[in-house]
Design goal:
Layout lengths: L9 H7 L9 E5 L5 E6 L7 E8 L5 E5 L1 H4 L9 H9 L5 E2 L4 E2 L5 E6 L2 E6 L5 E4 L5 E6 L5 E6 L4 E5 L6 E4 L6 E3 L4 H6 L6 E3 L5 E8 L5 E4 L10 E4 L9 E8 L4 E3 L9 E6 L7 E5 L5 E7 L6 E8 L12 E2 L5 E5 L6 E4 L2 E2 L5 E9 L3 E8 L12 E6 L6 E2 L1 E2 L2 E2 L3 E7 L2 E8 L2 E10 L8 E6 L13 E5 L4 E6 L6 H4 L2 E5 L18 H8 L3 E5 L9 H5 L5 H16 L5 E11 L1 H12 L6 E5 L10 H8 L6 H7 L12 E6 L8 H12 L5 E5 L9 H19 L2
Parallel strand pairs: 3-5, 41-42, 41-43, 43-44, 44-45, 45-46
Antiparallel strand pairs: 1-2, 2-3, 3-4, 6-7, 7-8, 8-9, 10-11, 11-12, 12-13, 14-16, 15-16, 16-19, 17-18, 19-20, 21-22, 22-23, 23-24, 25-26, 26-27, 27-28, 29-30, 30-31, 31-32, 33-34, 35-36, 36-37, 37-38, 39-40, 40-42
Helix pairs in contact: 1-13
Keywords: Hydrolase, Protease
GO molecular function: dipeptidyl-peptidase activity; serine-type endopeptidase activity
Pfam families: DPPIV_N, Peptidase_S9
């Protein structure tokens, strides 16, 4: 890690370094033969432009494979609106090379810069710009490295030979709102599927998504601070309204085209695609309500599909990274809740039990499956927030945990595996940043033979987080408590409390790591006891825990914040007469809900980019948890905030970026109008030109300072 600038305050450093991610290595890929690791990293903790690097696993030597400054001649990046939107979907705030793809040998890398197509040979170090019709998105080499496929903002899927010749269209849009080879909004935002095309293992064909968003309703995102600017048109599929029409096609390199056929009326969502040498292409398709899904095997010659597995759930079904997949000998690998635990299934056998909660599949080898998991029961979860990498035989035997010096890693932030090499990034609560280790597999199944450590150039934070982890209350809610640095209970007495939750689906905050807690520690150092609680609905505690919020955001998630607060007050110096709550996105919704529904507990709230009317949020997310608004209008009314406006008795600040195309500013404006109609004073802080990510340094810094000021004034501190 690099040292910080002496004049830095935490808010400025935190904002400038994108939460200390700038300069940290990321996006790892291991060559199939294990000879090299490719990754992204900038040159310093103050430089947002990522370079493509390689590490030689035989020597541990790192080498720059591609430098954006050299490739662009020192010029500034020019990002298309489509690329900016793609980065917003993936919460990407860095610059330079933000993504890349490798050929089948892990030798040729393809990537986009300023909408242009570049390649790098990871063995020779040679780089080249290929002629391409841009601005382009998501270039991917064929397995043999001879051709690169890419999508562009004109909606085309195109091919360019790796020698720079023969650029041509493979598929062109046949309508004004049609794109080929690009994931639609819902897939990017809610399914964690950013890809829209997939090469066949032998490189002679591709599977390509065709998306037509003509049915999707149009919204207009204006810039009120610049009335001369035209509003941006956004195709936004709000709950209960039409989605984009998504189909899948087999395209051969000579112009042949075959549509993939499945029951798209019953299963319209294309959630996952997998094409490997282990078997036929696999599709995971979901029903609109996500209570049924099918894994389909595809015959690429005819486009016909067969149902390999169908699953149903009364609440909903999740999708996971790395599955469905094949073992090399043709067994289907998936993650399932059917047993009551979130378990790994290989073929017909469930190979993990209730003691584990599967998070993802990292890799499938000839004999083993590498996965990430948490504890599934209280007995196997002695401390909240751990995630580890494990490996298990296809038969459910030989379970082992990746470890070093006999100590399992219990806070894995990312992991990849290939060619007998594992790259894992791990974190610890008492150490800043993360440690990225490259390790070689040993036959007994425990990784102890470290090849190298990939250096981090991230800055060292100017403060130290000191989380104290607990299971709170009768429900054993995972929680972390932060007290001011240097706090002395006898001298300082009880502290005003700041609840700092996300508290909703897919947002685990209580983790065994350091940097994710820096923001909470900074708030604590302003004179608060800060509490972060992951109540029901948050990930990592089993399917029943996650799914207990079905059709009830406003009840379970808020109840658990109250229970955690009151339980922790029995041990920690929490002044329950002075309790504030703040949050962003779902946390913003939860904060506003808290002061509206429980003013007896919460005395001030700050709601950042809150969802206030669930009919304004997108289909895949909202309908998964709350159902169809046409069928369950009472559920939407009970879980939206406008109906509670008359109950506001406490100070409430609502913050919203006016350029937010995820949680649009209409959410805040509607709640503000309802509060005004009810005669309830409140504060609204509009952020001109700011999206859901708030990437601007000055905005991110000053937001922290303004929130502290508002809470202190409201609590009379």
């Amino acid at each position: 890690m690099t040292s910080h600038t002496p004049a830095d305050t935490f808010p400025r450093q935190y904002a400038r370094t994108l939460r200390y991610t700038v300069g940290a290595p990321r996006s790892f890929t291991v060559a199939p033969d294990g000879s090299r690791v490719a990754f992204l990293r900038s040159k310093s903790g103050s430089d947002r432009a990522n370079l493509l690097w390689t590490l030689d696993t035989a020597t541990g030597e790192e080498r720059i494979a591609a430098d954006p400054a050299a490739l662009l001649g020192g010029g500034e990046e020019d990002l298309s609106p489509a690329e900016k939107a793609r980065r917003e979907r993936s919460r990407e705030g860095s610059a330079g090379i933000v993504g890349y793809a490798l050929d089948g040998a892990g030798r040729l890398a393809a990537f986009a810069l300023s909408g242009r197509l570049f390649t790098a040979d990871l063995v020779t170090g040679a780089t080249a710009e290929l002629p391409a019709k841009g601005p382009l998105l998501d270039p991917r080499p064929a397995p043999d490295g001879s051709v690169v496929a890419y999508a562009n903002t004109a909606g085309e899927l195109r091919l360019s030979r790796a020698d720079g010749t023969g650029d041509r269209a493979l598929a062109e849009p046949d309508g004004p709102n049609v794109t080929w080879g690009q994931a639609e909004f819902i897939a990017q935002e809610e399914m964690s599927r950013s890809r829209g095309f997939w090469w066949s293992p032998d490189g002679d064909r591709l599977l390509a998504e065709r998306a037509d968003d003509s049915p999707v309703r149009r919204w207009w995102i204006a810039d009120p601070a610049n009335p001369g600017s035209a509003p941006a048109e956004v195709a936004y599929p709000a709950a209960g309204t039409p989605n984009a029409e998504v189909t899948l096609w087999v395209l051969d390199l000579h112009g042949g085209r075959t549509e993939v056929v499945w029951d798209r009326t019953a299963f319209p969502y294309l959630a996952r695609v997998h094409w490997s040498a282990g078997g036929a292409p696999l599709l995971l398709v979901q029903s609109r309500d996500q209570r049924a899904q099918r894994i389909l095997g595809l015959d690429p010659a005819t486009g016909a599909t067969e149902v390999l597995h169908e699953e149903r759930d009364d609440a909903w079904l999740e999708v996971f990274d790395g599955v469905p997949a094949w073992t090399p000998d043709g067994k289907l690998v998936r993650i399932s809740d059917e047993s009551g635990a979130r378990a790994l299934v290989v073929g017909d056998q469930t190979v993990t039990g209730a003691d584990l909660h599967l998070r993802s599949v990292v890799a499938v080898t000839d004999e083993e499956v590498f996965f990430t998991a948490s504890g599934g029961t209280e007995e196997t979860d002695p401390e909240p927030g751990w995630i580890a990498v494990g490996r298990i035989g296809h038969d459910g035997k030989r379970l082992a945990w990746e470890s070093s010096n006999g100590r399992p890693f219990t806070s894995v932030t990312s992991a990849v595996h290939a060619g007998g090499i594992t790259v894992r990034a791990t974190a610890e609560p008492d150490l800043p940043g993360s440690l990225v280790q490259v390790a070689r597999d040993l036959p007994e199944g425990v990784v102890v033979d470290d090849v190298a450590v990939i250096a981090s150039h991230a800055e060292t934070p100017v403060l130290t987080a000191r989380p104290v982890f607990r299971f709170a209350g009768a429900r054993r809610i995972p929680a972390a408590v932060f007290l001011p640095t240097g706090y002395d209970r006898e001298r300082d007495g009880l502290l005003p409390v700041l609840m700092d939750p996300y508290g909703g689906p897919h947002g685990q905050r209580v983790v065994q790591a350091h940097n994710p807690h820096l923001n909470s520690q900074w708030f604590a150092d302003q004179g608060f006891a800060v509490v972060v609680a992951d109540g029901r609905g948050t990930p990592g505690r089993g399917p029943a825990w996650e799914k207990s919020i079905a059709f009830d955001f406003a009840g379970a998630t808020l109840d658990d914040q109250v229970e955690a607060l009151q339980a922790l007050a029995e041990e920690f110096p929490l002044d329950l007469g002075r309790v504030a709550i703040r949050g962003w996105s779902y946390g913003g919704y939860l904060s506003a809900l808290a002061v509206l529904r429980r003013p007896d507990v919460f005395h001030v709230g700050i709601a950042g980019a809150p969802v206030t009317d669930w009919e304004l949020y997108d289909t895949h997310y909202t309908e998964r948890y709350l159902g169809d608004p046409a069928e369950r209008p009472e559920v939407y009314a009970a879980n939206s905030l406008g109906g509670y406006a008359a109950g506001l008795e406490r100070p409430l600040m609502i913050i919203h970026g006016l350029a937010d195309d995820n949680v649009v500013a209409a959410h805040t404006l509607r709640l503000s109008s309802a509060l005004l109609a009810a005669g309830r004073p409140h504060t609204v802080l509009p952020l001109s030109g700011v999206t859901h990510m708030t990437p601007q340094e000055e905005v991110a810094e000053n937001l922290l300072l303004l929130q502290v000021d508002f809470v202190k004034r409201s609590l009379g501190i």
